[in-house]
Write a structure and sequence with these properties.
OB fold (Dihydrolipoamide Acetyltransferase, E2P), alpha+beta, 14 strands
Length: about 260
């Protein structure tokens, strides 16, 4: 994507605005230890000198190309911006570990702050360089992260320059997505809540996460337009798809992943 070059003064001015805006979101608690960064892996992952790989909680940036695939829009910009944030913090960051400290890849899950106390996830979200995600139980900063993303979305920055929201019937591959659709069916059984969007995608709330949701609100979604976000799974590949069921499934673990828009 071609972008016009901004004068250095203008670029610095905009950077200052974004920084002051992001600092208003998710302020750093006191007493966090400082650690040295070896390198930035991508827009939401750091490698520390001590060998740990750190996944930033609440932020999902576009994917860099692998195995011959092209970079997703803004993937390189997100990585470079995170590199710049680390450099501006003299190569050191402060970590606030999540309630769940590791993901299934063995990466450390943490909120990351610069030397000035600014939260890196909020900074990236406020500049439109990623999407806010809420994966329970690591949802302590959901509200301020949503505010940071909302500011970028309203301004049409980065990924929000052209709406990245897909209609449910446009989903054709697994992976992270922000999608919208009208709820055609809501079902509750021993497997939890199942919210179908136009027979294309089913949103699933497993029994172990139901306590986080208002069940009456879920039941009242039938016929309403909703927006959901998270990682879409292909049920046909998992061997768990029965005849007549939607192929695509998105697991919901926190109410912040779902909102009624109409």
């Amino acid at each position: 994507m071609l972008m016009k070059k901004a004068p250095l003064v203008g670029a610095f001015f905009m950077s200052a605005i974004w920084l002051s805006t992001a600092q208003a979101f998710c302020p750093a608690p006191s007493g966090l230890a400082s650690v040295a960064v070896e390198r930035v892996t991508d827009g939401d992952t750091l490698r520390l000198i001590d060998g740990r790989s750190v996944r930033l909680i609440g932020l999902n940036t576009p994917e860099l190309g692998k195995k011959g695939r092209s970079d997703e829009p803004f993937a390189v910009a997100a990585r470079k911006r995170l590199e710049a944030l680390v450099a501006a913090s003299d190569g050191r960051v402060q970590l606030l570990p999540g309630k769940e400290s590791k993901d299934h890849y063995g990466r450390t899950l943490a909120h990351v702050y610069g030397a000035d106390g600014a939260n890196f996830e909020a900074q990236m979200l406020a500049e439109g360089l990623g999407f806010q995600v809420a994966v329970a139980p690591n949802v302590d900063l959901v509200v301020c992260q949503q505010e940071a993303e909302r500011s970028a979305r309203q301004a049409g920055l980065g990924v929000w320059g052209q709406s990245p929201v897909l209609k449910a019937d446009q989903i054709n591959a697994p992976g992270f997505a922000v999608l919208s659709g009208r709820v055609s069916k809501v079902q509750r059984n021993r497997g939890g809540f199942w919210i179908e969007l136009q027979d294309s995608v089913v949103l699933h709330v497993a029994p172990n996460w139901l306590a986080r949701f208002d069940e009456k609100s879920l039941e009242g979604l039938k016929g309403r337009q909703v927006e959901a976000r998270g990682w879409v799974l292909d049920r046909s590949r998992r061997g768990g798809r029965k005849e007549g069921q939607a192929r695509w499934m998105l697991q919901l673990t926190d109410p912040a992943m779902l909102q009624a828009t109409q």
